[in-house]
Design brief:
Elements: H1 8-27, H2 34-46, E1 49-50, H3 51-58, H4 62-74, E2 78-83, E3 86-94, H5 96-105, H6 107-117, H7 122-141
Antiparallel strand pairs: 1-3, 2-3
Helix pairs in contact: 1-6, 2-5, 3-4
GO molecular function: DNA binding; DNA-binding transcription factor activity
Domain HTH marR-type: 5-137
Keywords: DNA-binding, Transcription, Transcription regulation
Length: 142
Amino acid sequence: MFKLENCVSYIATNASKNLAEGFDKKLKAYGISRVQWTALYYIGRDEEMIQKQLSDLMRIRESSTTRLIDRMEKEGLIKRKNDPDNRRKVSLTLTEKGRDLRAESFHHGEEYSYYISQDVSDEDMKTFMKVLDLMIKRADEY
């Protein structure tokens, strides 16, 4: 008989919410959300990025990305630049304020990842990542 408590997607969703909420608490001191932090990470990593690419990397709808970008632009963290040859193509770059905030908050991702996994052996982490990758691949194929 099916039990929701044993359903992989239910367990993963609850785990993801827990982990995300913990990281959000850490980032609150910087006045940004985990989603904004992730956008700062990707845009800063590539220095300039197309809005659609950011949507794909973050696995969120383009309409959600647009709202995120609107907010971050209003807060002075990013700049948009429209492609003169293609109106739908929008490039994103970090402002000085965005680069500074990224640099200030960047280490928290590594610190949080270390903290939550410090009691997990390297072997168990490799197994976890392998199993998770397989399940994500299967979910994408479904």
